[in-house]
TrEMBL record:
<dbReference type="InterPro" id="IPR002523">
    <property type="entry name" value="MgTranspt_CorA/ZnTranspt_ZntB"/>
</dbReference>
<protein>
    <submittedName>
        <fullName>Magnesium transporter</fullName>
    </submittedName>
</protein>
<keyword id="KW-0812">Transmembrane</keyword>
<dbReference type="InterPro" id="IPR045863">
    <property type="entry name" value="CorA_TM1_TM2"/>
</dbReference>
<keyword id="KW-0472">Membrane</keyword>
<comment type="similarity">
    <text>Belongs to the CorA metal ion transporter (MIT) (TC 1.A.35) family.</text>
</comment>
<dbReference type="InterPro" id="IPR045861">
    <property type="entry name" value="CorA_cytoplasmic_dom"/>
</dbReference>
<feature type="transmembrane region" description="Helical">
    <location>
        <begin position="276"/>
        <end position="295"/>
    </location>
</feature>
<dbReference type="GO" id="GO:0046873">
    <property type="term" value="F:metal ion transmembrane transporter activity"/>
</dbReference>
<dbReference type="Pfam" id="PF01544">
    <property type="entry name" value="CorA"/>
</dbReference>
<dbReference type="GO" id="GO:0016020">
    <property type="term" value="C:membrane"/>
</dbReference>
<feature type="transmembrane region" description="Helical">
    <location>
        <begin position="242"/>
        <end position="264"/>
    </location>
</feature>
<dbReference type="InterPro" id="IPR047199">
    <property type="entry name" value="CorA-like"/>
</dbReference>
<keyword id="KW-1133">Transmembrane helix</keyword>
Length: 302
């Protein structure tokens, strides 16, 4: 149900697994979490932010964590809650962010003594680093899909490009929210209470957050450009097809007019001419050729 580790200097890290809690009321009764914090932890759509309680000095951080498993056709991020009290750091996790808890545990085991904020900012850096392998994979998939689309523009490849673009939009938004959270911390009075080691770790987390935003934003722009380019190509192909069909329909209409004219049951020129059908066919063919050349020239100009 929970994991408890000693950080040193009398500080403790407690991780609460929501999937293993039998009653959500335990968060309030046993661990003293208020209703607002519990709502933050349960809200799937909560934005990354910091909430400072002046009354008791408790600080709640919501940080976007990457879901390594695709629930849909693309990757998404979801919020994870960190609660800092006087001598205690509480994380609220579930199966989707269990990998973060494992990495935090390994980091803690490799360091003897950590302050709460040193451990917190190291954890935020770990979360940011988890994005990079997935983003690199998406960048590679982008190149593969682009190559397939250059060979043949099919619905399957277009849907694959759309999924990549959608996933990158989510990751870009999550990365920007995380960066805004760290910038908020930097401008808050809380930042002035950090010691030198904590500030160094905060700077490392900030650098990773900025790099993540730059990387996701760049790939997102490339995907948008690719999507717009192939959209233009499809529109041009559609215009070419419509132009071809229009030319064919006009040429067929000429033959229909000529044959319809000489098919009327009234006296017409060449009625008594034995080779009239040959003259009419040659005239129709000549008119058809001239008109086709004219339409082709007009189509090329457009």
């Amino acid at each position: 149900m929970f994991l408890e580790k000693q950080l040193g200097n009398g500080c403790t890290w407690i991780d609460l697994d929501l999937d293993k809690l039998k009653k959500l009321e335990d968060l309030s009764e046993i661990y003293g979490l208020d209703k607002e914090t519990i709502e933050y932890a349960l809200d799937r759509n909560e934005r990354a932010h910091m909430d400072y309680h002046r009354e008791n000095g408790t600080v709640t951080f919501i940080y976007n964590v990457l879901n390594l498993k695709k629930d849909k056709a693309y990757y998404e991020a979801f919020p994870m809650t960190f609660i800092v009290e006087h001598h205690r750091l509480i994380t609220i996790s579930n199966t989707k962010n269990a990998y973060v808890i494992e990495q935090m545990t390994r980091y803690l085991e490799s360091h003897d003594t950590l302050s709460i904020y040193k451990f917190l900012f190291a954890s935020l850096e770990i979360i940011s680093n988890a994005y990079y392998p997935v983003i690199e994979q998406m960048d590679k998939s982008k190149d593969e899909v682009n190559g397939l689309l250059r060979q043949r523009t099919t619905k399957k490849n277009l849907f694959a490009l759309s999924d990549l673009e959608t996933g990158m939009v989510y990751l870009t938004a999550a990365a920007k929210q995380n960066r805004m959270l760290l910038e908020h911390i930097q401008g808050h009075a809380l930042y002035r209470s950090f010691n030198e080691i904590e500030r160094e770790q905060f700077d490392d987390a900030m650098i990773e957050a900025h790099q993540l935003v730059s990387m996701t934003d760049l790939i997102s722009q490339v995907l948008q450009q690719l999507s717009a380019s192939y959209n233009n190509i499809l529109n041009n192909n559609l215009n070419d097809n419509l132009t071809t069909l229009t030319i064919i329909s006009v040429l067929l209409a000429v033959l229909a007019v000529v044959t319809g004219f000489f098919g009327m049951n009234v006296p017409l020129p060449l009625t008594d001419e034995p080779h009239a059908w040959l003259y009419i066919s040659l005239a129709s063919a000549g008119l058809w050729i001239v008109l086709s050349l004219l339409l082709r020239k007009i189509a090329k100009k457009s």
